[in-house]
Amino acid sequence: MSPPVKTFPAKDLPSAAQVGANGKVRRTEDGRPIDLARDCELRGLVQYECLVMQPEVAHSPIQCWPVQRLFRKCQDKNGAFTVETTAWEGPEAATTSTGTAGGHAMAGVGVGQPVQKLEKPLQS
Amino acid sequence: MSFLFGGLLGHPLRTTLAVGKFLAFTHLFLEYGYSTAPAVGPSMLPTLEILGEWLLISRRHRHGRNVAVGDVVAYNIPINDSFGVKRVLGLPGDYVLLNAPGSGNDSMIQVPQGHCWIVGDNLPASRDSRMFGPIPLALIKGKVIGRIKPFRFERLENPLQTAD
């Protein structure tokens, strides 16, 4: 079993990202605190919501809708770490109460809308 | 036939040693090199199909060695005695969403030391870290290198790309 883990809301990500899993404060190579937007490279990964159209039939058509997830690849003195920023700076963050200014910045990057079902499926 | 009776079978000790060496080398290769395994289920759609998948697994990545966020791994499922295939979304010290994006819950966690966070590509049909939490890296059997198809091999690339 994994040890007990504390959860935090996505809006607290900038402060939560300052501490490593070992409890030590993270610092960049030149000794600054980690700034997610400035120090970390934005990356994306797509997962899916798939529906088997006729589960009782072999080789049934399958429809999948993309779910965009965003990550920031950061570097501190001890090496690289990854921060999922989907709920912090994705399009959804800008429309929720926990949204941050990062959400507006993300809209300019044009990654797309997560959890939006497309009219045309990716695979059938 | 004369080779068999005059060569190998004529020297039972030598034959036993040769078979033993072959078995030991095979075990070494499958345990610490590369192995293959079938994968069944809808949790990794559309990356892997529900049926008929045969995967090449690099055991050199066992226990999470050199595994990166975005890689697909084979692991021992912590809640039953079988193995599964999922995508790694967080390594020790990384920060991940506790639930799927769009679930209405934006709670996050930091992956504890010695653990990783794995999620299936087909979010509604996957039982993964969202259900049983971060898993120990020691449960990772290896990294899925690709899919073995009749007369061809499809490499699985890490999809974590620069978002531009």
What do these coordinates show?
Chain B: This is Peptidase S24/S26A/S26B/S26C. The complex is a heterodimer of chains A (about 120) and B (about 160). Chain A has about 120 residues and is an alpha+beta fold. Chain A has a domain at about 5-40 and about 70-110. Helix content of chain A is about 15%, strand content about 30%. In chain A, a hairpin with a 2-residue loop joins strand 3 and strand 4. By secondary structure, chain B is an alpha+beta fold. Chain B has 2 domains: about 1-30; about 35-155, Umud Fragment, subunit A (Ribbon). Chain B contains 3 helices and 11 strands; from the N terminus they run ααβββββββαββββ. At the A-B interface, strand 1, strand 2, strand 3 and strand 4 of A face strand 4, strand 5, strand 6, strand 8 and strand 11 of B. Strand 1 (about 5-10) of chain A pairs antiparallel with strand 6 of chain B, so a sheet runs across the interface.
Helix content of chain B: 10-25%
Q: What structural category characterises the helix and strand content of chain B? A: alpha+beta
Mean pLDDT of chain A: 76
Query: N- to C-terminal separation of chain A?
Result: 39 Å
Strand order of the largest sheet of chain A: 2-3-4
- Class computed from helices, strands and strand pairing of chain A: alpha+beta
How many domains make up the coordinates of chain B? 2
Low-confidence stretches of chain B: none
Which fold name fills CATH's third level, the topology of the largest domain in chain B?
Umud Fragment, subunit A
SSE sequence of chain A, one letter per element: EHHEEEHH
* Spatial extent as radius of gyration of chain B: 20 Å
Q: Using a beta-carbon cutoff below 8 angstroms, give the protein chain pair with the largest interface and the number of residues from each chain.
A: A-B, 52 and 47 residues
Region (Disordered) (chain A): 1-26, 90-124
Organism (chain A): Schizothecium vesticola
InterPro entries (chain A): Mitochondr_Som1
Protein name (chain A): Mitochondrial export protein Som1
